[in-house]
């Protein structure tokens, strides 16, 4: 007699235990009633009727996904290997379950194709120097495509742009040539500025002969302090005076 009551009681307790579901704060349950979408439940405690209702759990936390290394041909026909990291999360559990099969795999495939297509429209220099802009472009495209799946793409970061050895050497030669060009331009600008200053100094000295004489004496003092050999430059005015004296003496002799 007791067994006849005990068996249904045990079955009832097992049914209740199988019906109880508890979801944490960061998860939601998409519930189907006889195959049709019913509601999104959670977090907390709720009841699911076994055999009639079915639930699929979706994690709402940010998912970090490594985008596998992709072979990309840039716009200037350079082959590089690029990989990236993708951050996304589910914002609509209903769409993530109903609108796409295996939303994580679908997002991964979308990120790979978008990475190749976006980087293929840019030159190698842009890939190396404008990563922030490329990250934003890739993030916007993936986010717009995955919005219908109930997925929000938070960020995309390009991690590595790998080049072969020949391209690395070519870039090094290009950088060296660029540095030499800048050095020559800076040297030429310095010569131009120096020549302008010399012209200004010549105008100032020509207006005041005493200043030229003082500069001459200062130069003599600097030369005498640095070397035991003194080179005495002959002023042009003094040579003109001797030449004039010599010309006057020869005129007297002729007379």
Helix content percent band: 55-70%
Count of extended strands: 8
CATH topology of the largest domain: Tetrahydropterin Synthase, Chain A
> How many H/I helical runs?
8
Mean of the pLDDT scores?
83
Distance between the termini: 170 Å
At CATH level 2, the architecture of the largest domain is 2-Layer Sandwich
Mind telling me the CATH class of the largest domain?
Alpha Beta
InterPro entries: Band-7_stomatin-like (IPR043202), Band_7 (IPR001107), Band_7/SPFH_dom_sf (IPR036013), Stomatin_HflK_fam (IPR001972)
Subcellular location: Membrane
GO biological process, one term: proteolysis
GO cellular component, one term: plasma membrane
Write a structural description.
The chain has 255 residues and is α+β, with helices and mostly antiparallel strands. The chain has three domains: 15-59; 62-163, Tetrahydropterin Synthase, Chain A; 176-213. It is 56% helix and 25% strand. The protein has eight helices and eight strands. Strands 3-2-5 form a three-stranded antiparallel beta sheet. A hairpin with a 2-residue loop joins strand 2 (27-33) and strand 3 (36-41). Helix 3 packs across helix 5 (131-146) and helix 6 (165-207) crosses helix 7. The longest helix has 43 residues, at 165-207. The model has no long low-confidence stretch (mean pLDDT 83). Belongs to the band 7/mec-2 family. Residues 18-175 form the Band domain. GO terms for molecular function: peptidase activity. This is Regulator of protease activity HflC (Stomatin/prohibitin superfamily).
